[in-house]
Structure formats: C-alpha cells, structure tokens
C-alpha cells in the first residue's frame, strides 16, 4: 500500500486551498458541537505531576543548535524531569477569559488552538516511577496508567528495532485525533497532524538538548500494532510519531509474549462527529505492515541540494551569542502573534531564524545533520539591509538568493489565504518540497515525514523568534499560487507550511495559540 503513491497525491491535491475553493466552501463552524480539547479516561486513577519552574540554565538558541547525540551518553529522566518536559511541550501555559468561558493555551503552537495531538508515555522502571504505559492528562496535568510493566521492547519491535528506541528509558508516543481538528479544518486536518505534532517535537528536542537527554524522532513503525497496543479507535485517533527520550547502556528486556487488548472507557468528545474518509484513507495508505518494511523505509534521504549560486546575500552566522533567555522562559513566553507592527527586523535576526529552522533534526527518516526534505523560500517585507522581494534560502551557504525583487506585502497577504498577518509581518517563510522525490523514496509515508519535518522546523522558528522578543505565527496558504510565485525556481515543488515573523503590534501578546 505504501508504494502506491496515487493515494498521497489524491489526498494532497484534494486538500489544496485556492481562491475559488475558499469562496465555494460551504463549511460552517458548529459551536454547539465543538469537541473537547482533552482526552480523558474517567475510570482510571491519576498520578498528578508537579512543575515548579526548575531552570535548565541553557539558552534557547543553544538548545536549538546542539541536539544531543542519541549515542553520546547514558542519561535518563526522573519524574520531576518528566513533568518539566511534558509541561513545556504540551502543558497548559496560559489562560484567557472571555464572556463565554475560558481558553487554555499550551506550550506548543497548534492550528486553531484545537490541540488534536495526544501524548502517551512508555517507560521502564525509573528511580521514582514504575514501569508502564501512561496517557498524559493535559487538563489535570497528570499521568493515567493504561498498562503496568515494561513494554519498551514491544514498542522497539513495532519500530523495526530502531536502536534509539531499544535503549531509551522513556518513549513518547504522539497520536492525532481526527475530529478535534476536522471540526474546523475538515479533511486538511491530516496535514495539521504533521504541523502540530512537529511544533511539540521541536519543544521536546530543544528540552532534550537542554537537559542533556538524547532524543530521536521515529516516524517509522507498524501502525496497526501500535494503535492496537494503545487501545486506539482508529476511526478517531491514530499514532503519528515516536520520540526516544534518554539512553541506557543496555537494551530493554524482552516483553510479554501475549498482550491483552485494552478496553477503557473514554469521555465523549462532542455530541456528534463528522467523518472525513479521505484522511483515514491517506493514513491507511501510508501505513507500514512489518518490521522489514519499517527498516527499509527509514533513512537514505535522496540527494537534493540547492546549488551554490553567485550574487547571493550572505547572512551573518551567530554562534554562542545573544539572545540568552533560557529555553523554558522562551516557551512560556511564546504565543502566536495576532497582529504584526509592520516594522523592520535586522538582518541578524532573520539570520538567526533561518539558522535555527534548518539546524539538525535527529529523525529516522533523515540520515545527515544537513539533510532536509523541505526547502525554505522567503518573502522579505521589511528586513534591514535586505531588499524587499522573494528569495530562496541556501543553507549550505547560509545565504539568500534573490528570485524576484519588489514590494510583495500585498502578495504575501494574498498567498496566506488573504490574511493581513502575512502582509504586515517582516518576513514570511514558506516551506516547499519536491513531493515526487519524497514519494519515490519513502512512498505515501513520505507525506507524513515531510509535513512532520516542516512542523519541527516551524516550531524551531517560533522558539527562535520569541527568543529574540519577536513574534511569529503559523499560517495556511493558497497551495499552487505559492509555487507559482517562487517559480521557475520552485517549479515542481509543493507548498507544505508557512510561518510569518516580525515585531508584534502589542507590547505583550494577549492572544496565543
């Protein structure tokens, strides 16, 4: 199934936005049927966690720049560290009251503040916490045990015996809940699984680096086995990625030969759910079926370089310099900017954003620190010492190549679904990918990988922006118009994600997501 890439093309093309599709859409939000933003197991007891704001002592930019090598050291978290990591990746960091109630915002950005990504924890015996399989209860900030015992070897087998999983004391499993996001975004939600899981993983990777815990993103695993293990109803929720956290010198012990099914009661999310079969078809078509298929799927990224070019704008590299705010301070401060000041940022600030976004990502579908599936294209609206225009970023040279010179504020706003945010931002950073190349190597599952990578890179942009006391926001876009704007250079590529950055119009961001 994974090699029949007609399924990925069908999904991608069917969920594109265009000027006409937006105007002919009949979808309206049913506020009375808005889903609950939390998954709750009402019959399971809760182990409450406590986060007291323990400092890491590591600057956000340092945490982004130097991911911990999974093979570099043996280190594992205790319960206090797990609480810190869970709070700063998916916990509730802000609250906002409004006439009809209260909104709770979390540590990582999410489309529409709908928070469809769930976290599960699989661990061996830790110093102060028993081995088991747990669900992270965001609303109560605690853990509910789904299974007792050490199942890390079982997860490793599902992941084709990936070495980082075999030696991890803790494994985080990230899943996506269809309806919670599809209530607003319909079938395009499956793209958002990658974006919203990616921003959480960006926080997790930065925190792992700051806490000297080796981490690795694992996107290759036997889907149905992992879904069944967690007791997920795959009509509603599916696993999307894994993250190994920490490292032990020995591999996880052999697991149980027979694993009983889970049948646990859940709190209903809403009165009724609308099904969008296209998402489930895409997930099924990108599923892997055996350990051998998983092992063959990962790594071996196709050679894809943006050739060195003359007449480029070389950007200053910032190494161990400002900003110096610690990673936890930046995550707590982060929001999603709701209005930009239409003011300039410096060339150095833009340099830091691009450098952070394209830094190394430890992931099983990437096999080199400088290898990525996404290319960055930039509309510069207002950056000191950089002429307004459309550019492509050349990471090997850390430079911008001018593609189109001129004031494109209006065009930036149009491309971002006619949103003023992109027109007023200092810079708009578009992620584009050659899906033909990605699908030829990775099959349908490459679509998950390219969206997940864009989300991680976008999450790093968020952190880098707020570390510099700038603002940032993720946006959607008119797919084919983005490609056309950056062509002929971008011809044949597809728009994957967009982050706008600049100076916020507000001294303190009151609205976050």
Offer a quick outline of the entry.
By secondary structure, the chain is of the alpha+beta class.
Beta-strand segment tally: 16
Global morphology: globular
CATH topology value of the largest domain: NADH Oxidase
Question: What is the CATH H-level superfamily of the largest domain?
Answer: NADH Oxidase
CATH class of the largest domain: Alpha Beta
Q: How many helix segments?
A: 18
Q: How many whole angstroms does the radius of gyration measure?
A: 22 Å
Strand pairing plus helix content: what structural class? Answer: alpha+beta
How many separate structural domains?
Answer: 2
Arithmetic mean of pLDDT: 93
Overview of this structure, please?
The protein is of the alpha+beta class. The protein has helices spanning 6-14, 19-24, 60-65, 79-90, 152-158, 163-166, 178-185, 189-210, 223-230, 277-285, 291-297, 327-333, 347-357, 409-415, 420-424, 435-442, 445-467, 479-486, and strands at 47-48, 92-98, 101-106, 117-123, 132-137, 142-148, 170-177, 215-218, 237-245, 312-314, 375-380, 389-394, 399-405, 427-433, 471-475, 494-502. The protein has two domains: 39-295, NADH Oxidase (3-Layer(aba) Sandwich), CATH 3.40.109; 312-502, NADH Oxidase (3-Layer(aba) Sandwich).
Layout: helices, strands, pairs:
Elements: H1 6-14, H2 19-24, E1 47-48, H3 60-65, H4 79-90, E2 92-98, E3 101-106, E4 117-123, E5 132-137, E6 142-148, H5 152-158, H6 163-166, E7 170-177, H7 178-185, H8 189-210, E8 215-218, H9 223-230, E9 237-245, H10 277-285, H11 291-297, E10 312-314, H12 327-333, H13 347-357, E11 375-380, E12 389-394, E13 399-405, H14 409-415, H15 420-424, E14 427-433, H16 435-442, H17 445-467, E15 471-475, H18 479-486, E16 494-502
